Amino acid sequence: MMKTVFIRTFGCQMNVHDSEKMLGVLQKDGYFETHDPRKADLIIFNTCGIRQKAEQKFYSELGKTKSYKKRRPEMKVAVAGCIAQHEGGNLFTRAPYVDFVFGPQNIHMLHDIVSRRNRSLALEDNPDIAKEDLPVKRGDEVKAWVTIMYGCNNYCSYCVVPYTRGRERSRSSENICAEIKELAEQGYKEITLLGQNVNSYRSDINFPGLLRRLERVGGIERIRFVTSHPGDLSDELMDAIAELTKVCEHIHLPLQSGSNNVLRLMNRRYTYEEYMKKVLRLRDKVQGIAITSDIIAGFPGETEEDHIHTVKALKEIEFDGIFAFKFSSRPGTRAEEMKGHLSKEVKSERLQQILEIQEEITEKKNRSLEGTTHEILIEGESVTDKGKLTGRTRTNKIVNIPKVESEKGTVLHVEITRGRQHSLEGKVIKE
Ligand code: 5AD
Ligand code: SF4
Question: Domain 129-366 belongs to what topology?
Answer without folding.
Answer: pyruvate-formate lyase- activating enzyme (3.80.30)
